[in-house]
Amino acid sequence: MSSEQMEPGTVRPGGRTARVRSSVLRAAGDALVEHGFDRLDLADVARRADVGKTTVYRRWGTTAGLVTDLLADMAEQSLPRTDTGSLIEDLRANARLVVKTLTDPRQGALFKSVIAAATCDERTAEALHRFYATRIGEWAGCVDQAVERGELPAGTDAAEVIRAVSAPLYYRLLASGDPLDGAAADRAAEAAAAAARAGAYIA
């Protein structure tokens, strides 16, 4: 199977191909922020990226394929998790990173568009699930270390703890409209830590 026939996001190209991918994904993100998934158009993305339409259609094929690769790239570019040696400080760092991302004018709007698209497009939903699985898997390490240090009971489900940190923050973004700030981040981290210490997340 040639690289251009492979699933978007599975190739680690170099040189001009990498530059084209970067330009197209940036353009796709801009278009999503401006217009949303419903109005995402491959020809418009090609124009924004200053590349040929045939290149975009051949490599990504569909808007869902393009968003899939965009999410893969976002996972690749995400900051590594913090390792402070303290569960609560690690969870606070995680929560503050979530808030920083969701309140960023571009990133926040981009996530809203992708989440909205995932509700009606199965391929986008799968890509979004993979993105979050990657991020949760990385941050789950701080919970596993807390178990090893004796901060949390044995058998604590690390992924569930990380989900508990971010869930109320996404609720504020998508449902309630309540402020997303440092206080909300710290509250989410502290609540998840307290529940984990009490054994709420023992598998």
Automatic annotation (TrEMBL):
Residues 18-78 form the HTH tetR-type domain. It comes from the Bacteria. GO terms for molecular function: DNA-binding transcription factor activity; transcription cis-regulatory region binding. The keyword Zinc-finger does not apply. Signal peptide: none annotated. Keywords: DNA-binding, Transcription, Transcription regulation. InterPro entries: Homeodomain-like_sf, HTH-type_TetR-like_transc_reg, HTH_TetR, Tet_transcr_reg_TetR-rel_C_sf, TetR_C. Residues 41-60 bind DNA. This is AcrR family transcriptional regulator.
